[in-house]
Structure formats: structure tokens, C-alpha cells
Specification:
The chain is mainly α. Helix content is 64%, strand content 0%.
């Protein structure tokens, strides 16, 4: 996928985000038709696209730890942060950590159960199926980002203190 991103002049993470958004939207649209609720589109986007907000944890830990080497004028420069955020290998390799706490296969059944309970509570039929957008997200990441088959198991990363070496 790096070649596609480079051909379009986009970073790899941005291409991955477009793919995550597309998968989540398609799953949400299908669920909205099957269960007659447009809310399932919103929840699918949350589960399959906005779950990547956890990359901000990795980014800001690295930014905080390396703040002395960053030009002070860039501290509050949104362009600097957007550019740096969409280059995850920069901050992952600097920090030597891969935390992303919402990226873990163990979370699939947990999300399914929580969404099932929430769907029953608020009367939104089919809500648990939006966890399919999360599965699509993890599947794509596992395919194109993971260093090994254990990379997207949160317990594996936790046991290895979120070490980049254990991830790659």
C-alpha cells in the first residue's frame, strides 16, 4: 500500500485511514439497510474509523518525551502536528513503543457484548453488528501493518511493555 500512497502523494497512514473509513461506511450502510437504522452508520464509523484516535496516545507520549528536540514554535502549530501524526513510524521508532490500546483482537468479543447490551438498553437493534467495522479495521491493519501475527493482540503488547521490538 505504500506505493499507492506515494503515487497519490499521500502518506501511508492517510491511505489506511481512507480505507478504514470506506470499510466502516460500507458496513454501516449495509447494517442501516438490514436493521432500518441510520444510527448504525454512525456507530460503524466509530468502531471502524474513529478507533484510530488511540494513535494520539502514542503520538503525544513521543511528543512529550522529545519536546526538548522540537522547535518551540511548533508546539502549538497544528500543521506540524498533523504532518507528524500522519507519519506514525516517525514517532513509533523514536519512542520505541506501540501502545494503541484500542487495537487488540481480544477486544472484539468485549465490544460485541458491550454493543449488544447498549443496543438492548437504548432500543437499537443490530448495534452489536457494528463491531464488524472494528474487525475490518483490525484485519486491514493486521494485513498491512503488523510485524508478526501477535502484533495486534493487546495482551502480547502489554506483556512486552508495548515494545516496538515485540510488535515488528
Amino acid at each position: 500500500m505504500k506505493n499507492v500512497g506515494q503515487a497519490l502523494g499521500l502518506g501511508k497512514l492517510l491511505v489506511d485511514e481512507i480505507i478504514h473509513f470506506s470499510f466502516a461506511l460500507i458496513i454501516g450502510l449495509i447494517l442501516a439497510v438490514v436493521f432500518s437504522s441510520p444510527w448504525l452508520i454512525v456507530f460503524s464509523l466509530l468502531m471502524g474509523f474513529l478507533v484510530d484516535a488511540d494513535h494520539l496516545i502514542d503520538y503525544f507520549i513521543c511528543f512529550y518525551q522529545n519536546r526538548q528536540s522540537i522547535n518551540k514554535k511548533d508546539w502549538f502549530n497544528p500543521i506540524f502536528h498533523i504532518r507528524e501524526f500522519f507519519n506514525p513510524f516517525g514517532y513509533v521508532k523514536k519512542n520505541k513503543l506501540v501502545i494503541v490500546p484500542f487495537h487488540g483482537w481480544e477486544l472484539v468479543p468485549l465490544f460485541w457484548l458491550i454493543l449488544r447490551w447498549l443496543g438492548d438498553k437504548i432500543g437499537l437493534s443490530g448495534l452489536e453488528w457494528t463491531s464488524l467495522a472494528y474487525v475490518a479495521h483490525l484485519s486491514w491493519d493486521q494485513l498491512v501493518c503488523a510485524g508478526n501475527w501477535r502484533s495486534y493482540f493487546l495482551i502480547h503488547r502489554l506483556l512486552n511493555r508495548f515494545s516496538y521490538e515485540a510488535y515488528k
